[in-house]
Amino acid sequence: MSLLKDWRLIFSLILAHVLLYVTFSDRDIFWYIYTAANLFFISFAIISEPIDDKQRTRSYLKYGVLSGLVLYALFFIGHWLLPYLPFDWDRQVASIYNRYAPEFSWHYIVLILVFIPGEELFWRGFVQKRLSLYFNDLVAIVAASLLFASIFIYSGNFIWMAASFAAGLFWGALYVWKRSIPMLIISHLVFDLLLIILLPLS
């Protein structure tokens, strides 16, 4: 089967863009629609592909926590360098926190239980895995990361797209290395807890 005939992949990517377009169309519905989008991501990924889990619990916990800390450290360094870059990236970062940071208890619940698993199951466990059927691992990582970043174009915030692409490359490479979706979820969880809740960069 060729990539252009992979209707599951093409349909899911089109629907992802439709859902994210609606998600960012109104700040007041962001948490509702992105929750629905990630429930779709989880369901579609589970139906379409077996969940890779080739690491023992102790191993994926260790690498998940360590990789989450490493990625946060890289973002921390990147944020420290923003004032030295030619564009006003600091203002874009601040606008993301101001507009989309969790406010209510249910926001934190869906962030942990829906957003994080949904993104990893779909973008790495389905999209990247599917792309690896047609391309080598490096191309699949880059392509999946670009596709992941592309859905945030509707936020109107370039730094969000750039951050998603960078994180996608990191988690994509980690997925190829360890083939463990639970490890990626732990890594993403540690990263988001630091970035959004414990030590935000704005």
From TrEMBL:
Limits of the CAAX prenyl protease 2/Lysostaphin resistance protein A-like domain: 104-193
Keywords of the record: Hydrolase, Membrane, Protease, Transmembrane, Transmembrane helix
Cross-referenced Pfam families: Rce1-like
InterPro entries in the cross-refs: Rce1/LyrA-like_dom
GO MF annotations, alphabetized: endopeptidase activity
One biological process term in Gene Ontology: CAAX-box protein maturation
Keyword Oxidoreductase: no
Annotated TM spans: 7-24, 30-48, 60-85, 105-122, 134-153, 159-177, 184-201
Protein name as annotated: CAAX amino terminal protease family protein
